[in-house]
Specification:
The complex is a heterodimer of chains A (247) and B (298).
Chain A (H helix, E strand, L loop, with lengths): L2 E4 L2 E9 L4 E10 L6 E3 L7 H12 L6 E3 L5 H4 L2 H7 L4 E5 L4 H4 L9 E4 L4 E4 L2 E7 L9 E5 L4 E3 L7 E3 L16 H11 L8 H14 L4 E3 L10 H15 L2
Parallel strand pairs in A: 4-5, 5-6, 6-7, 11-13
Antiparallel strand pairs in A: 1-2, 2-3, 3-4, 3-12, 8-9, 9-10, 10-11
Chain B lengths: L14 E2 L6 E7 L2 E6 L5 H4 L3 H8 L9 E2 L1 E7 L3 E4 L7 H12 L6 E3 L5 H4 L2 H7 L4 E5 L14 E3 L4 E3 L4 E5 L11 E4 L4 E3 L7 E2 L8 H4 L6 H15 L8 H14 L4 E2 L11 H17 L7
Classes of the chains: A alpha/beta (247), B alpha/beta (298).
Bound molecules: fe (ii) ion (FE2) (3 copies).
């Protein structure tokens, strides 16, 4: 489902249902960027059909400029071949921490790939995107990205949450109580199995450093919907979830 | 034929392909084979030259060690069992090595340690070559279809696969990044596959060597300790939030529980001699990793 998040930022992609009724989102974010669209993560192969329909609706005749990967696991790259078949001139932007010959599909060519370095900012079709380390992640070559124009922080797996079917595609400001701590906890508990081995206050201190450095107005997790209503509430609930999961 | 009389079905120094497709086969025991990939000459260019950075942060490290090993393992028992698949770039070479090792037999099991591409990227290709294959992976989760494992058989800690002589036990990992991760321990040989744990780099004179053969090039448990303390800050960045003392205790408990005689991770030269000295070095390495500088860009 196409959801307009803010300004030229859209959320597409699907979700998958678990056996116990809890759904997990696998989102793709699109910045239309006036003639040179940018896509963040490629989505899952199980949602290819819908993702491509939605992308074509959003982009019209404008060719896709860049696909930014938060990291290279299948839920984030499964639909990559379909996207690059449709827009063969699109470039792929990946963290400098990944090794393409082992971490990208074999058919990706060297001239399709651009590396991004944590601590730098680059212009893509005139849009300034900056890069930082993935703070909470499940794969070494994960980076987070920030679009200053919309204030969007792309956090890969972090800030995901599981939700009941009724909340599918709902933003935090469309839920009466926002996103409950319990939903955030359910996702992070299962996605980051190392959390019980670490100190929650240290995780939170690192997250605070990221938010202290930029004026985040949208958090865009792959496995949740964009958080755009009350960022302070969302981060406070994330903090609470960390304190409850960690040692 | 008794299992131990098994003759290695490929030449002892078999190497398939080159550079990014390069795969070698080494025999660990008469029935356990190491199928491994690394770049070899040219690793500095292919792998981004990380060794210079590492040596700058720790002068005890080898500034020419720009290569990393990626490992699969194959058990040729009454049942055949493969651990991980190597990455997409090696799909032809890993299939050829597998075909030569199986020598007409079929592959019964493919166990996926976790779903990242260098470990699981050739699952579909191997399944096509062995249609009766049973793919095994980590139980206790949900949403397997997005990881391409919708029809895998799910295993839980404590499950044991009886291959004949070898009994493969699924064990709880001590250090994970991806949530869908398990480790395995094989009781007959003391073979432990701790997946991403450890991780040492190597230079172009050390490709495809067992750790005891690395020692012929001057390597030692001390080198291993220094390297792992550096690499594991990257592999498990969450260690910066952990407690060195607690992790040390967890490692002690783990080592007391499992009698490790073959230490066979995914990205480490296989350790088959002098294991206790390397395990002591590994424990110290993890504690050094925790207390060192992670150099995070916020
Ligand atoms: Fe991930
Ligand atoms: Fe993910
Ligand atoms: Fe790995």
């Amino acid at each position: 489902m196409i959801r307009h998040v803010k300004d030229d930022l859209y959320q597409i992609g699907g979700s998958v249902a678990g056996h116990d009724g809890w759904h997990e989102a696998v989102r793709v974010y699109v910045l239309l960027n006036d003639g040179c669209p940018l896509v963040f993560d490629a989505g899952s192969h199980v949602h290819s059909h819908d993702i491509m329909d939605e992308l074509k609706q959003l982009l019209g005749d404008t060719p896709l400029g860049y696909v930014f990967l938060t990291h290279t696991e299948l839920p984030h790259t499964g639909n990559l071949s379909v996207i690059l078949n449709q827009w063969p001139d699109a470039r792929l932007v990946v963290s400098s921490g990944i090794l393409p010959h082992v971490e990208l599909p074999w058919w990706v060519t060297a001239d399709q790939v651009m590396f991004a370095y944590a601590g730098t900012e680059e212009s893509y079709g005139g849009r300034h995107i900056s890069f930082l380390d993935g703070i909470l992640k499940d794969q070494p070559g994960t980076h987070w990205m920030y679009d200053a124009a919309t204030g969007t922080l792309f956090t890969a797996d972090a800030f995901g949450y599981l939700f009941p079917a009724s909340a599918d595609a709902a933003f935090d400001d469309e839920l009466a109580e926002g996103i409950p701590v319990d939903w955030i906890k359910r996702y992070h508990d299962s996605a980051f199995r190392f959390l019980p081995q670490v100190a929650g206050h240290k995780v939170n201190a690192d997250i605070d450093k990221v938010f202290g450095k930029r004026s985040v107005q949208v958090i865009a997790p792959t496995h949740g919907n964009a958080m755009r209503g009350n960022i302070a509430t969302c981060t406070a609930r994330f903090h609470q979830a960390m304190l409850e999961i960690c040692s | 034929m008794s299992p131990d009389a098994h003759i290695c079905p490929v030449p002892a120094d078999a190497i398939y392909g080159e550079v990014d497709t390069r795969v070698a086969v080494r025999q660990i025991t008469p029935q356990i084979y190491w199928i491994c990939h690394c770049i070899g000459p040219g690793a500095k260019e292919w792998n981004g030259g990380f060794a210079d950075d590492f040596a700058r942060s720790n002068p005890l490290l080898d500034p020419t060690a720009n290569d990393i090993i990626y490992s699969s393992y194959l058990f040729l028992d009454e049942k055949t069992f493969m651990i991980d698949t190597l990455g997409p770039a090696q799909h032809h070479t890993v299939l050829k090595a597998l075909e030569d090792l199986l020598d007409g037999r079929k592959l019964d099991y493919l166990w996926i340690s976790h779903t990242e591409l260098p470990h699981a990227g050739n699952t579909a290709a191997i399944r096509r070559a062995h249609p009766d294959l049973e793919v095994l992976t980590v139980g206790g989760h949900d949403h397997y279809e997005v990881h391409g494992l919708g029809d895998a058989r799910l295993l839980d800690y404590g499950d044991v696969l009886d291959l004949g002589t070898h009994k493969i036990e699924i064990i709880k990992p001590l250090f994970v990044d991806h949530a869908l991760t398990q480790w395995i321990y094989e009781h007959h040989t003391g073979f432990l596959c701790p997946v991403d744990w450890a991780l040492n780099d190597h230079n172009e004179h050390q490709c495809f060597r067992f750790m005891d053969e690395m020692e012929e090039t001057g390597y030692s448990p001390e080198h291993f300790k220094q390297v792992v303390s550096t690499t594991n800050r990257t592999v498990f960045a969450w260690l910066r939030w952990a407690d060195a003392e607690v992790v040390g205790q967890q490692i002690d408990e783990f080592l007391a529980r499992y009698d490790i005689r073959i230490f066979a991770p995914s990205h480490t030269n296989v350790i088959r001699q002098n294991v206790p000295a390397y395990m002591a070095a590994l424990k110290e390495a993890m504690q050094l990793a925790i207390t060192g500088d992670f150099d995070i860009v916020y």
